[in-house]
C-alpha cells in the first residue's frame, strides 16, 4: 500500500471530528458568539448560548467536506482514493451518531440535528432525514466512483469506518478530558 494511502487511512479519519467541530466554531464566530473548541464539542461562551449558525456549522461543514471529497474523487483521478476517503470519513462523522441513535445508545435530541430542529421548532425527523439521505448519497457516490474491485472497495470503506470510529473514541474519551478539561468529553 502506498504511503499516501496509509496517510488517507490515518490522517483523514483522525481529522474527521476536529473538522466537524471546526465547522461549529466557524458558525459561532460568524454569529459573533465566542466559543471554546475541543475534539467532540464547541461550547458557546456567550450568555445568549448556542446560535443556530454555530449548531448547524458542524453538520454543514461535514456535508461540504464530504462533497469536496466527491469532487476530488471524480475530478482528480490521481487522487481518487484521497477524495473517496475524505467523502466517506466526513459522511461517517454524521452517520456514526445516527447509528448510535438507532441503537438507542445516544439521544438524537441532544445531538446537532436535534438542536437544529429544536432551534427551528421543527420535528427531529425533518432535520435528521435530509442530512441522513445526503450523507448516504455522498457515501454511495464515493463507493461508485472509487474504481477498484468490490472486495477492495468494501475493505477500504470498512477500514475507514473502523479507523474513524477508533480515532473518534480516542479523541473523545482520552484526549478531550486531558487536553480540554471542562469543555471536552462525551456528555453534552
UniProtKB/TrEMBL annotation:
Q: Which UniProt keywords apply?
A: Membrane, Transmembrane, Transmembrane helix
UniProt KW Transmembrane keyword:
yes
Q: Where are the transmembrane segments?
A: 50-74, 81-105, 125-143, 155-175
Name of protein: Peptidase M50
Q: Which organism is it from?
A: Marinithermus hydrothermalis (strain DSM 14884 / JCM 11576 / T1)
Q: Lineage of the native species? A: Bacteria, Thermotogati, Deinococcota, Deinococci, Thermales
Amino acid at each position: 500500500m502506498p504511503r499516501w494511502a496509509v496517510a488517507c487511512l490515518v490522517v483523514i479519519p483522525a481529522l474527521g471530528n476536529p473538522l466537524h467541530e471546526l465547522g461549529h466554531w466557524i458558525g459561532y464566530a460568524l454569529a459573533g458568539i465566542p466559543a471554546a473548541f475541543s475534539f467532540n464539542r464547541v461550547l458557546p461562551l456567550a450568555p445568549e448560548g448556542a446560535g443556530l449558525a454555530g449548531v448547524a456549522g458542524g453538520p454543514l461543514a461535514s456535508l461540504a467536506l464530504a462533497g469536496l471529497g466527491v469532487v476530488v474523487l471524480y475530478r482528480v483521478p490521481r487522487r481518487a482514493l484521497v477524495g473517496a476517503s475524505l467523502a466517506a470519513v466526513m459522511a461517517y462523522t454524521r452517520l456514526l451518531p445516527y447509528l448510535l441513535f438507532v441503537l438507542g445508545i445516544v439521544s438524537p435530541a441532544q445531538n446537532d440535528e436535534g438542536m437544529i430542529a429544536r432551534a427551528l421548532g421543527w420535528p427531529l425527523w425533518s432535520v435528521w432525514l435530509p442530512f441522513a439521505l445526503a450523507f448516504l448519497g455522498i457515501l454511495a457516490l464515493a463507493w461508485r466512483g472509487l474504481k477498484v474491485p468490490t472486495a477492495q472497495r468494501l475493505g477500504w470503506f470498512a477500514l475507514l469506518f473502523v479507523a474513524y470510529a477508533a480515532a473518534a473514541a480516542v479523541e473523545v474519551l482520552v484526549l478531550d478530558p486531558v487536553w480540554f478539561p471542562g469543555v471536552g468529553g462525551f456528555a453534552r
